[in-house]
Amino acid sequence: MDATDLRIALFSGNYNYVRDGANQALNRLVGYLLRQGAAVRVYSPTVDNPDFEPTGDLIHVPALALPGRAEYRAPIRLPGRVRRDIAQFAPNIFHIASPEILGHRALSLARSWNVPAIASVHTRFETYPRYYGLTFLEPLLVAILRRFYRRCDAIFAPSESMAQILREQRMSYDVGIWSRGIDRDIFDPRHRDLGWRQGHGIADDEVVIGFVGRLVMEKGLDVYSDAIDSLERRQVRHRVLVIGEGPARDWFEKRLPQGVFVGFQKGPDLGRAVASLDMLFNPSVTETFGNVTLEAMAAGLPVIAAKATGSESLVEDGVTGRLIRPGAIEAFADALQHYCENKGAREAAGAAGCAASERYGWDQVNQALVDGYLRVIRQRAEGVQGPPRSPVP
């Protein structure tokens, strides 16, 4: 059996209607699978004006806008017409990319049809409540996630640090790695553009601290702002440049009135914007991989990041940047000050990060997941039983 024998039903809560690292990885995966001769069918909510065109065949599933986050859709069921479409497609493996209602229904369907199912882990959902004053919900979310993931034949994390967290949380007995790749045509130090910086009022000799990502509170915007405030109090010369859009933009702009906000960027424009920074500051603890961290490294930037899943597998502390205890404002400020005031340190860390990023190619990481699909299917064919119907507590 090889990739041409694969028939993959892929279920996602957001395949293309809002652009983020997870759904871009899924679209790249589908493109790779189709080039290898596999058959793929994607089931996800859709909208009239998605952020980008989907790769492959996309089937709509019913969904409602999330309260307070209307840009996201919450799938509410797996209707009969979709079940019939799945049956006609006759998948030999289910890939579930989000543990919400659609994922649960798809997993139950796979179990009833005796079709193997794997899940990919894209974010640390259990950490989200802490950003909205609901920390007490975290143990409940962990229990719900554990029940879901243990019903899968295998789960795949994007980094070894995230895989270790999943093992410690007893999420699955079979945790593999599906990493993320980098488009080196887009993210490259050569795309640095001082003219572009000047157009945004930034002098050539000013040191720019960047933020790249969706502007939502769970990205650590409060920690970012507090660390920048500390630099201001220390009178460290710097500029802040924010790349991205999101519902928390107004809040972030008010917290950082001196910042330059350039909005959403994509493709070559994003590559130019990232390469035109002098460092990336990523205090988030919710990522399972950290696409923006890898992109910044490929662009030759030092990265100051929270010592958390994803970043721990990418950033080598003291070599390609700094890993700081989550929420440690003054320690973040110390690291930022070091790179603001030491051009040689910035250049050395950026060069080391660029070299380290070269081992992340999209075809290589996607082939690793293809190998995972084939392994899980082969195990079922050889009589290896799927996960227990009642998860072990």
UniProtKB/TrEMBL annotation:
What keywords does the record list, in alphabetical order? Transferase
Q: Does the keyword Transferase apply?
A: yes
Q: Does the keyword Transferase apply?
A: yes
In Gene Ontology terms, what is one molecular function of this protein?
glycosyltransferase activity
Its signal peptide is none
Pfam families assigned to the protein according to its UniProt record, in alphabetical order? Glyco_trans_1_4 (PF13692), Glyco_transf_4 (PF13439)
Domain Glycosyltransferase subfamily 4-like N-terminal, first and last residues per copy: 20-185
Q: Per its UniProt record, what PANTHER family does this chain match?
A: SULFOQUINOVOSYL TRANSFERASE SQD2
What is this protein identified as? Glycosyltransferase family 1 protein
Organism of origin: Parasphingopyxis marina
